[in-house]
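Tutorial sheet, problem 5. The two components below are modelled jointly, 570 residues in total.
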Amino acid sequence: MLEVRALAKSFDGFRAVDGVSFAVPRGSISAIIGPNGAGKTTLFNLITGHLRADSGHVLLNGREVTGIAPHRLCRLGMGRSFQRQNIFPRLTVFENVQAAYVSHRGRGWSMLGPVERLFRDETEAQLGAVGLREKAEEIAGLLSHGGQKQLELGIALALEPEILLLDEPTAGMSAAETRDSIALIGRLARERNLTLLFTEHDMQVVFSIAQRIAVLHQGRLIADGAPEVVRRDPEVRRVYLGERN
Amino acid sequence: MRRVPWALIVLAAAFCVPALGSRYYTFLANDIAIWALFATSLNLLVGYAGLVSFGHAAYFGVGAYTAGILMKKLGLPFLLALPAAGLLAALFALAAGFFCVRLTRIYFAMLTLAFAQIVWAICFKWNEVTGGEQGMPEIPYPDFAWFESIGEVVPLVGGWRTAEYFYFVSLAIVATCLWCLRRIVGSPFGRMLTTIRENPERAEFIGVDVRRYELAAFVLAGAFAGLAGGLFGIFNRGVFPDFAYWNKSAEVLIMTLLGGIHTFFGPAVGAAALIWLNQQIVSYTQYWPLILGTILIVLLFVFPGGIAGAIGAAFRRLAPKLRGA
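Model answer (structure tokens):
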């Protein structure tokens, strides 16, 4: 589904991502973990075309997509969420998700007719799926942090992606919010047969839903495999899990 | 609560202005109508796409010169000259916008300013075509014989002065253009522009080709500014290089902010307020820029949503009380 080969990126000589290779099989739920500054977000930005890689390749369904523009990647079936600034704050919740439908279904260039009535049913269904139906008319920027994360997921899902990249989906959430939102993400991924790749710092979250885990440390991949394997990996225990326990 | 059709009421009132019998009021209303279109065209960029242009006068100027040259030097009818003004302004906006949308924020603003200064310099120096520094006085009015002949049949339509006929025609054109702009901002295209304003990075990842949308908005805004410029040259009975000068760009930006960028009619309100204030104040004092500066400071600190934003907020606070009473 998604394959990354020897991807590398330096900032002023600092090797943020240093020859990372891994593959995400279709329908799997995979996580990238690592301490702060390990290069997780940089890696995401390289995959999604927000940053240009110094070297290496990204393949989506076997097709070379290295460095292509985000809006084109989006049309090829890749959705993503962001760690920060992930919604359209001064639009309503409804308009946020509706905009995703308008764009994704190719109606964005239409200058005739009002936008209000477009994709009403789809938008409402999607808001229901992420638990925001009652908040449809609220201003998105005024939602709670958890609400904004739900909305972000709604926007991403409206794009009907085959693969969804979530950058720290539970960042800043309370323990209860984290649990709910992970349950929601896991359920939606299974229902829609999504391939999911996410970064996360919360170990409990990762081990609760990920089928595969890749561990990033100082820009390098030090482990990649099933949760049990990664958990037992001595290198991982030393640099990461060990620090915590 | 039923919605009041304010736009139609204002339009109907505006059509009645010449009946007051004052040439001055008609003059003022015509000035306001044209600037209202100019400011609203700018707001497509500022308020909807989130692009602050410091060079919008360039397209106003191109439109004014296009209509002026076609009507005065080539004797073409208004019906051809005005669309040509919009079209040429759109082409200029396409050429400049192609580069401008590659930059963001202050760099975008500076590049629009740079292009506007180029347009101004061309108008200022290209004597054979634009009349150079002297500009191009005595732009003819359109031919209103058709209007007179309708007036012979329909009561109230005939018997006006040429300036008043021009007022009616420009009012109708401005109203049509505003209606088109309103449709555009309410369309799916308009919604995509607001997503870009809100969060360009996210917009890219719902599949919006941000630069192309920005360019389209830039071209549309330029076209409508060109139409406003075409009207203004005729209204002003002459076209001059300062139409494209940077202080015109600043003036229209101030109107837009004064009126309020978050409502569709805000910039039109701002145009009316600023022109009316200017006329009132220059008869008392020569320090108009001082007053303008003070207004701007108050605006930015006290009413960041502009006049329309302040009225809207007051109305939302009062409406429940009125209904409760």
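Marking note: The mean pLDDT of chain A is 87. Full credit if you identified this.
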